[in-house]
């Protein structure tokens, strides 16, 4: 397509004060190879604003000590700040109670916690777990391990060519042996926003708990776990402008209380003798050992930052970026968008005729444009579309329409080189 045609596609004005927002992100000032960084790999990990970096520095320089363990002042401060971070996260997802927020190292550990704590106790031989084709490996492999251990079965909800779950088929998968549903709120490979509220309501009517993998949803949508009525909700801090090494498993208190601990050690016990250990209450029952204190406090600062901008404004700006980028790519000959669901968030996966995605990523990188190429830890999605990999641009609220233009120009360069 000519650049004239591209000019016909209107570029909506930003819903956010992007100049001010971008100034908060030191890394966005980088110029790799002399070209301005165009960071479009936010689904893998987003960037951290100065406010979060400053909070980490303040914690490390003036507040650090171990928590829950001493009466000295620093330990009391660190404990109070860590628990305040839990309150902030509970408010961010509208959990009923802060003890329903368990800090984990990320989404992967959160799902593994649910598998060990809930699955190993309540799922047995012949039982069934419903997953979807759209899951990240983090919401497949733990359940597969459990199924192998217990003799349980995985049942998988198919998708249509657009990358939307077939809800009739989902409902048809329920049997008297269904014990759990695991579903991504937003697909990391395609960006499809799944109808999780409706799926949860159906599962609830069958008495089946639902775990929602929210890793790709919390950065873009206003998530309300009470409104969704999910039993578990898992997400990672590093996709939410927070640090790596921290994440959350939200669980309904009554369910968490019935679960067995995942890890044993300090801080999760009431009493220990060599004959018997008794466990403490939630959330500490699931937070054995010294937790990532600084990272939790940093994540608290990150959700403060996002809340101050407003998740609705964030989502609407990102939808504008996605719509603009989609409109450009779908008019480009030789470009195939993979994942065209009616409801999408922040992710644009594509394939270029005759060009391997790794070559796309390498050449875009030379133009300063950072995208992800590969299977995105979602091999069943790749198998469904019969592609080994895709190129994936993923947007955050600090991205601009000009950066979408840079992506499109970069793709044209790739096509010039290869086609
Ligand atoms: C949908 C989804 N689930 C789970 C994960 C795993 O997250 P983490 O590596 O932070 O544990 C990711 C990461 O990309 C993801 O996109």
Characteristic terms for this protein:
Aspartate Aminotransferase, domain 1; Aspartate Aminotransferase, domain 2; globular; 15 strands; 2 domains; 7-stranded mixed beta sheet
Task: Please specify the SSE layout and strand pairing.
Layout: H1 3-8, H2 18-23, E1 38-39, H3 50-63, H4 73-92, E2 101-104, H5 107-122, E3 128-132, H6 141-150, E4 153-157, H7 167-172, E5 178-184, H8 196-205, E6 210-213, H9 225-228, E7 232-236, E8 247-251, H10 253-258, E9 269-272, E10 277-279, H11 293-309, H12 311-329, E11 335-338, E12 347-352, H13 357-366, E13 369-370, E14 372-374, H14 379-385, E15 390-394, H15 401-418
Parallel strand pairs: 1-13, 3-4, 3-5, 5-6, 6-7
Antiparallel strand pairs: 2-8, 7-8, 9-10, 11-12, 12-15, 14-15
Helix pairs in contact: 3-11, 4-11, 5-6, 12-15, 13-15
The chain binds pyridoxal-5'-phosphate.
